[in-house]
Specification:
The chain is α+β, with helices and mostly antiparallel strands. The protein has 6 helices and 10 strands. Strand 1 and strand 2 form a beta hairpin. The longest helix is centred in the last third of the chain and has 10 residues. Its EC number is 3.4.-.-.
């Protein structure tokens, strides 16, 4: 995720409630700070209005009932098949849905023996991604009321089974070779519905996102990249530079 704040605000037609800093990262790891886009109802006039905001959240959802934020490192993804029932996600999917902007993501392919080859999955052209996500607020009991850090905003990305390859595209065959799960992307119209804070049929929205994955991912590309991406200390645009695959 290497796009600037101003570019994200323009792309998603969002605004800021507070100034945020989102350093570019080519190697986002669990618990890192990531941008999210959400909509909320603001009742500051005669009639409530919907406001779309860009915020910064910790990647790995921390449920409101968690004793500490450590659980978030295991909640970076939410399985769309069970998100309506899982205690960690079922409240968020009803009323705290978001979009998680990204330029692409990495996946690893198992080779002979212990060898692995990393791949960079991304849209064609300069277009970015918007994954379907959830967000949650967690109150840190160790921080006094009103102090910075009292509330932690965190997020998780919805996933689904990788669609089977079809005659219309070969991208899903390539994705299936890498992993049996895929993060769920959204086109603009799906994102509009997903973010709507007044929409109350969460099951229908999850179905909408799941049904749109083939169209939203039709132009994705899969490119082999260097193994330096396997170390989170490495972070730079060279990580997404295509290299010849090892196998």
């Amino acid at each position: 995720m290497a796009r600037a704040v101003g570019d994200l605000l323009a792309e998603f037609d969002a605004e800021l409630e507070d100034e945020v800093s989102i350093p570019p990262s080519w190697n986002v790891a669990p618990t890192d700070a990531v941008p999210i886009v959400l909509e909320r109802l603001v009742d500051d006039s005669a009639a409530p209005r919907q406001v779309r905001q860009l915020r910064v959240a910790r990647w790995g959802l921390v449920p409101s009932w968690a004793k500490d934020p450590g659980i978030g490192s295991r909640m970076i993804n939410a399985r769309s098949e069970s998100v309506l029932e899982k205690p960690a996600f079922r409240k968020a999917v009803q009323s705290r849905r978001c979009a998680v902007p990204a330029d692409g993501y990495y996946e690893w392919k198992q080779g002979p023996g212990k060898s692995k080859q990393p791949y960079y999955v991304h849209p064609g052209g300069d277009r970015g991604l918007a994954f379907a996500g959830l967000y949650e607020w967690w109150k840190d009991p160790s921080v006094p009321e009103g102090e910075p850090g009292r509330w932690l905003l965190s997020t998780s990305i919805l996933t689904a089974d990788t669609p089977p390859p079809g005659a219309e595209s070969t991208i899903f065959g390539k994705l299936t070779e890498l992993h049996d799960r895929v993060p769920l992307p959204m086109d603009k119209s799906t994102m509009e519905a997903w973010l709507d804070p007044q929409a109350d049929d969460a099951a229908a929205l999850v179905d909408l996102v799941r049904s749109g994955v083939k169209d939203a991912a039709a132009d994705w590309r899969v490119e082999s990249v260097g193994k330096d991406v396997g170390n989170v200390r490495n972070n730079g645009p060279e990580l997404i530079r295509p290299v010849e695959a090892l196998f």
